[in-house]
Structure to design on (209 residues):
């Protein structure tokens, strides 16, 4: 699934940003503004995020380009999305719309599971998300992603079954299944009705140094 997504995105024009390229002079200001909005000291943010106080200080002074893993930890501690933290200018509004016709669709080998790529092209190397629609009996077999990657399947309608390493778990509407996806894994629609879900994949860069 990952290889298919990458091929599609390359076809649309590969415009992926690395962590260093995404970090502009606004990053330090954004982190500092959010920290102060929560009335957090550098020490308190360091404790909550697991990022060293000295590193946070350097980020706020724009003296270093942090890894995506570091930004992810800070964003979790500040309860804000990574996209917002990485925004070029947080003071300006950002609204981007993609039409149905421009949304790539991946289809499983049996033709019964469809994944609409709704994630942002600039994050595909470390964060991907999809709208999943599956006919009853549909099966999506996926090869391993990068080591340390985690997948999350939030079920909206129907019943899904996820199998990883011989372990099987069932998710129904309103439930979410999270699992390591750095090994072969299978998603099945096992209910009598069409299944719908949101799938989010956090790649190695976002969960490991």
């Amino acid at each position: 699934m990952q290889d298919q997504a990458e091929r599609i995105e390359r076809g649309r024009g590969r415009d992926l940003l690395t962590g260093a390229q995404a970090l502009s002079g606004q990053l330090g200001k954004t982190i500092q503004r959010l920290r102060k909005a929560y009335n957090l000291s550098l020490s308190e943010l360091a404790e909550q995020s697991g990022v060293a106080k000295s590193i946070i200080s350097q980020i706020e002074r724009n003296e270093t380009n942090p890894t995506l893993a570091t930004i992810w930890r800070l964003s979790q501690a500040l309860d804000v999305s990574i996209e917002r933290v990485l925004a070029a200018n947080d003071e300006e509004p950002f609204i981007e719309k993609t039409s149905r016709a421009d949304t790539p669709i991946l289809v499983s080998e049996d033709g019964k599971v469809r994944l609409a790529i709704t994630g942002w092209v600039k994050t595909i190397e470390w964060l991907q998300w999809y709208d999943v629609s599956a006919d009853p009996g549909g099966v999506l077999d996926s090869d391993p992603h990068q080591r340390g990657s985690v997948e999350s399947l939030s079920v909206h309608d129907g019943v899904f079954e996820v199998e990883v390493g011989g372990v099987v778990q069932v998710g129904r509407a309103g439930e979410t299944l999270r699992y390591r996806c750095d090994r072969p894994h299978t998603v099945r629609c096992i209910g009598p009705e069409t299944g719908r879900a949101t799938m989010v994949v956090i790649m190695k860069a976002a969960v490991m140094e």
User: Anything to note?
Assistant: The helical segments are 2-11, 19-22, 26-37, 42-49, 53-60, 68-77, 82-86, 204-207. The chain has a mean pLDDT of 80.
